[in-house]
Design a protein that fits this description.
The chain is built from seven helices and eight strands. By secondary structure, the chain is of the alpha+beta class. The chain has an eight-stranded mixed β-sheet with strand order 4-3-2-1-5-8-7-6, with helices on both faces. The chain starts with 6 loop residues before the first helix and ends in a 5-residue tail after the last helix. The protein binds zinc ion (ZN). The site of zinc ion has 7 residues, from loops.
């Protein structure tokens, strides 16, 4: 295949990168973005290249890889957290895009080892509930990938202990929105704590709003 293959999918990833940079969710060369591409021969993935600073990130830095992260188009090194992305795609057929950020407030929860509790209606409807923290796994390890998938469950976001945040969506638009929402609720949660006790949503409200999330995702009720 040539570099012109999958141009529109790679442009979409580049656009998502620009949006998370503009939103302040990543800096330097941290974080990564991917999307699933369905082809007649099976799924491929457009992923951001590793260690390319965002100020000079271009379409050439979006690579096409297969499910084993073997290169199909492009000659950069795929993101160091590609294993996390692939593990999510394997576990969650509903997921079409994955974004990993080191956004500040969400990372603060990840460093404290504290989930972001269910505090906002939109959080539960759009993310599925509290944002859980994956047990620690070294960067780029299989262990991190497994633990991230476990913490994510059927929800749209998780925190990676002592590392950052993970956001997923049916497509890149949704994943970008989730990544932004995770950071916003983390910030609101911290600010509300300064005003006194953070009031979490009542369990029955969380349950009914999480049911809306699962319905929108097309998940079967267990
Ligand atoms: Zn990271």
């Amino acid at each position: 295949m040539t570099a012109s293959d999958f141009r529109s999918e790679r442009e979409e990833v580049l656009e998502a990168v620009r949006r998370i940079v503009a939103a302040g969710l990543v800096s330097g060369a941290s974080g990564n973005v991917s999307r699933r591409i369905s082809t007649a021969e099976g799924a491929l993935f457009a992923v951001t290249a590793s260690r390319v600073p965002y100020h000079r990130f271009s379409i050439g830095d979006v690579l096409i890889v297969d499910a084993d992260v073997d290169p199909v188009v492009g000659d950069g090194i795929p993101s160091s957290e590609s294993l996390v992305h692939m593990a999510v795609y394997r576990a969650r057929p509903d997921v079409g895009a994955v974004i990993h950020t080191h956004s500040i407030h969400a990372s603060a929860f990840a460093v404290a080892g504290r989930p972001i509790p269910a505090i906002l209606d939109e959080q539960v409807v759009l993310l599925g509930g509290a944002v859980e923290v994956a047990e620690y796994g070294a960067s780029a390890s299989e262990e991190l990938a497994e633990r991230a998938v476990a913490a994510l469950g059927q929800r749209a976001a998780a925190l990676l202990r002592n590392h950052g945040a993970l956001a997923v969506g049916a497509d890149l638009d949704e994943a970008v929105a989730v990544a932004g929402l995770v950071e916003r609720i983390a910030q609101i949660c911290l600010l509300s704590g300064r005003l006194g006790e953070t009031q979490t949503l009542a369990a029955d409200i969380v349950q009914s709003e999480a049911a809306v999330y699962r319905m929108m995702k097309g998940f079967k009720e267990s």
